[in-house]
Design brief:
By secondary structure, the chain is of the alpha+beta class. Helix content is about 45%, strand content about 15%.
Length: about 675
């Protein structure tokens, strides 16, 4: 028989399948040294007896009792003790995430004596009473009255046993089955169950709960994104019944906790090499991370994030193309409402792009029945609950009056690709019952009747262009866009070998960005590029120049000649000098990207970049001794920093122009090419 419980302390080497996604994430965060409440996991195999709401065997109950007794939060609290009590959260944790489809029971272990102990410890009888009331409401709703264990409410360990059995059994609920059927997930694997020390987002005015993403899951914008609600617990946030605020409000209210959160989320993104979503609680000003998972992104966000992570050196270009898949083309083809002259009948936050049209219904079961008859329906709800998933699966679009982009409705609709508008306001969308509406999930607007749509959709942005270039080229850290042609002017023209190498590095590039990079007039570059096209070394599509196969062969020949001309010792010294600053540059750029919308913190990140730039004298001198000096890296870095300091924010990290980070990335690639290394072998 499989081991009944495993302590999550950061030391486990088990896979995600063996631990379940949630427990695996807890173990990983602990390994990284992040603040996570103490926890253990009960394996799905050992919990097989809990299926369909069954109770735990006597042997399993005793194992659970021992595991709970061993659990220690960081301040030494103990489960079952009325003095400084430890309460527990019982959550599901299947190998594949099924957001909101299974049950959770919070505040397990609260009894009369524990309630008195909490009141005495915190000095707040109201808080202690609220904790118990929330437990009782959730326990009565989730745990079957006929659980075979009598009345467990007076005994913490019987509460825990009943909660574990109910949460494990919720894997076989109707909503979970419907979700697995829609997603094509296995039916018989069961779920792991996580038992974790409670931390309280509802303790006091310096407490709250929220969800944070490392990038905007709707647009892919590289900034910390999410929602937060003070004096609340996570279940309230997901249901959408709370008034939430963006994370910028958290930065104002609890700046230290916000800074720690931003740092932790960025670290997790770098560790996982993808956009992550993190659930967090702040208990009296102290940050706790509860779990993380891969963020559910719109096609536009998927494409933008894949390109950005490749340009930042987190993933390679081939991985970016694989990861985005059809995301760029899906975004281009996404339909949009042709706005009529009349105003929309409702508006809120766009939670998932796309257009859906149908008859508004309020009941999820009615939505299912009508859909099975071939009718188009839009599900409208005051807020969202996991039981609504049957209606979400059937609807062409989903509307809610309460909740934000991190609510259960928004998360599930992004997972399903269902157009959604959330947080439309009280007595708005539910008053539309029985009428026909058209929903635009990108605009966040709802229109009366059948509204025409633009089937051509939007043209792909620069990320789409880059992904297509990467898919068709062997070498290409491309950067679409350009500085103004007035930036050029140090020489009349560049030699064609240098021009060819620059185009090869950028992959898909407009002539004026080449001119800006080489410091020559754009007119001269245009003539030289025409000559290269005539020679079969490059071609031009949509205003962007790329190397042909013959051009890539020629670029490799130029590289080989430059490598032969290099002093090997000088090249090693240059590479060593570059690496001594590389981590600091990445941290400064990451600091800028995660908080670019906050002028004070963006200024700090820019100051850090300026301080690094002032220490690059040795590197610049060494670059002057190498063939790649013709690519003008010192001048380009200085120009980008100067523009950023004068207020042109894109010059820090915008991949579409010759920004500081773009130039630094290309310099890194050139050094690796000359050394015959790739990024993996360099690190190794």
């Amino acid at each position: 028989m499989a081991e009944f419980s495993l302590s999550l302390d950061g030391s486990l080497a088990n896979s995600r399948d063996e631990l379940g996604g949630k427990a695996w994430s807890i173990n990983r965060m602990l390994r990284l040294g992040l603040p996570v409440p103490a926890a253990f996991v009960l394996t799905a195999e050992a919990l097989g007896a809990c299926r369909r709401g069954g109770t735990l065997s006597e042997a399993a109950r005793e194992e659970l009792r021992r595991a709970a007794r061993r659990l220690r939060h960081d301040d030494g609290r103990r489960f079952g003790s009325a003095r400084r009590p430890l309460l527990l959260a019982v959550r599901s944790g299947a190998a594949v995430s099924m957001p909101g489809m299974m049950d959770t029971v919070l505040n397990v272990g609260v009894t009369n004596a524990v309630e008195r102990g909490l009141a005495q410890e915190t000095g707040s009888r109201a808080f202690a009473a609220e904790v118990r009331a929330r437990f009782r409401e959730q326990f009565d709703r989730v745990v079957s009255p006929s659980d075979g264990d009598g009345d467990p409410l007076s005994d913490p360990y019987r509460q825990l046993s009943a909660a574990v059995a109910a949460v494990a059994g919720s894997y076989y609920s109707d909503r979970a089955r419907a979700y697995r059927g829609r997603k094509g997930l296995a039916e018989d694997t069961g779920t792991h169950v996580i038992v974790q020390a409670m931390v309280f987002g509802n303790r006091d005015a310096r407490s709250g709960t929220g969800i944070a993403c490392s990038r905007n899951p709707l647009t892919g914008e590289p900034a910390l994104w999410g929602e937060w609600a003070g004096r609340s617990q996570g279940a309230q946030l997901m249901a959408g019944g709370l008034r939430t605020a963006p994370l910028s409000a958290l930065a104002e209210d609890l700046p230290e906790a916000h800074a720690q959160l931003a740092e932790a989320v960025t670290r997790l993104e770098r560790d996982q090499r993808r956009v992550v979503e993190v659930e967090f609680t702040i208990d009296s000003g102290r940050l706790w991370l509860l779990q993380f998972r891969a963020a559910r992104l719109t096609p536009r966000a998927e494409a933008r994030a894949a390109v950005a992570l490749a340009l930042e050196g987190v993933i390679d270009r081939a991985e970016a193309v694989r990861r985005a898949g059809g995301a760029a083309d899906a975004e281009r083809a996404a339909v949009r409402v042709v706005r009529p002259a009349c105003p929309p009948v409702a508006a809120g936050a766009g939670a998932c792009p796309g257009v859906g049209s149908g008859l508004v219904v309020l009941d999820p079961e009615e939505a299912r029945v009508r859909s099975e008859r071939g009718e188009h329906v839009v599900l409208a709800r005051p807020d969202s609950s996991p039981d609504d998933v049957v209606g979400m699966l059937a609807a062409t679009a989903v509307l809610t009056e309460r909740g934000g982009p991190a609510s259960h409705a928004a998360v599930v609709c992004r997972e399903l690709g269902r157009p959604a508008v959330v947080g439309c306001g009280a007595a708005t969308v539910t008053t539309l019952a029985g009428t026909w509406v058209t929903v635009d999930g990108a605009l966040g607007e709802v229109w009366s009747g059948r509204v025409p749509v633009d089937e051509a959709g939007e043209h792909g942005g620069p990320e789409s262009e880059l992904l297509r270039a990467w898919a068709s080229a062997e070498m290409a850290p491309p950067h679409a866009g350009a500085f103004r042609s007035g930036d050029a002017g140090e020489a009349d023209e560049a030699d064609e070998d240098t021009l060819l190498r620059v185009v090869g590095l950028k992959g898909a590039v407009a002539p004026d960005v080449v001119a800006s990079a080489l410091g020559v007039p754009v007119e001269g570059v245009g003539e030289q590029l025409a000559s290269l096209r005539d020679g079969g070394f490059c071609d031009e599509r949509g205003g962007y120049v790329r190397l042909t196969e013959a051009g890539r062969v020629r670029s490799r020949e130029i590289l080989a000649a430059e490598r032969s001309a290099c002093d090997a010792a000088m090249l090693e010294r240059c590479h060593t000098a570059f690496r001594s600053h590389n981590e600091a540059v990445k941290q400064a750029v990451t600091g800028w990207q995660t908080r670019a919308g906050e002028s004070e913190h963006a200024g700090v990140a820019l100051d850090r970049l300026g301080a690094i730039h002032r220490r690059l004298g040795e590197l610049f001198a060494l670059l002057g001794e190498l063939p790649l000096s013709k690519r003008r890296y010192p001048q380009r870095l200085s120009a980008a920093l100067g523009r950023a300091e004068s207020g042109e924010r894109g010059c820090v990290a915008d991949p579409r122009i010759d920004s500081f980070h773009t130039v630094w990335f290309e310099l890194h690639q050139e050094l690796l090419d000359l050394l015959g290394l790739d990024r993996e072998s360099e690190t190794g």
